[in-house]
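Appendix B. Chain record.
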Amino acid sequence: MTRAWEEVHARPPGDRYGGVRGEPDFWRFFLNRVRRDLDGGAVSAEAFGRLAAHFRDPRSWSIYEDVLETLDGLRVRGFLLAVVSNWDSYLPELLEGLGLARRFRAVLVSAIEETGKPDPEIFRRACERLEVGPEEALHVGDSLKEDYEGARGAGLSALLLDREDQYAGIAERIASLSEVPRRLTE
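Structure tokens predicted for this chain:
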């Protein structure tokens, strides 16, 4: 699975999920790459349908314990929140199903925006939708290249969410979202 995902990530971010109309083909391509690496086979239409339904079901996902309290605390303090994600166009519905959508003023999804992290354009669009300048924004994400370096390259401050302690050399890293409020007052 890792090898197939690395192949997918080698594609330009705007193409990564096939855009709004090409997502089923993208996911078939990915799953067939996984299956090819496992046993040389292909994913059947029936298996693809079951996997797609599972992936889109909010009950298939879990939310880290630090997420809700942190998001709600930041909103109460007046911070404007947005999601900037390299994902497919189903993400807004998934966020709604998980009870997260109402916590964000904007949701930017690479498949819909036709650009993705680390391209500065998606970060600029997020700032525009929040009506803030890049120098006023903080991006928090778990990918060194796409989130941390991408946001900084677009002129935003950034924190690397490093839940697994992989990037000890990065000063602007946190192990939990619960650290964000403290970092905003430093």
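Further analysis of this model is presented in Appendix C.
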